[in-house]
Amino acid sequence: EAYDLQLNKANVLAALGRNEEAKQIFDTLLAEHGDDPGLLIDIANLAIDDGDYSRAADFYVQVVDLNEADTDANNDADNKAMLVAAGTWYSSPNIGRFDDAIVVLDRAADLEMTPTDNTMLMRLRTYYNYGKDLKTQATAETDPVKQAALTEESQALFSRAVEIGVAMTNNFPATADGFFYLSLSQLELGDYAASDANYKTYEELQGSPQ
What we know:
Low-confidence stretches: none
Radius of gyration: 21 Å
Oligomer: single chain
Shape: elongated
Helix content: over 70%
Number of helices: 10
């Protein structure tokens, strides 16, 4: 009962915009009730309100972990959506937690009986952007061994992006951004003819009425 009262108080404070006070109460409750999905969702919502999407993503993933660990199938409906949201936040330029993004987005894809264009696009974009990030790191690296390792890893990410991009454009031939990121990934691998063809398709789809 005391826990519920404190939880309600924190949510009222958050609704009033007194986020720092709400966060202090949430952090106290979290220490003793870290396995309560409702509490974790409330904390994630406060983090979203504060613009702390990295923290929100962490709590979304914790909620999914708890949901998948129990025996109640009724609480699994939002798992995929939370994983996609977390992966999208992790991979955003100002966060750049690409390893975490790939893990949760691949988990989301595994939950789909039939692939969806949004999940595939988020995975495709993340693999490509991670490859670009490592390529930039490789360019700045002065140690030849580390530079070679970063280059090899970035090329592997581009190759994986191409695999996802080909599957996506086959399944969703009207989604322009699939062709866009596929083209960029192929360009990084030196497959210029395929990249050019897919970029032209992207331009055609962009110009066609949606």
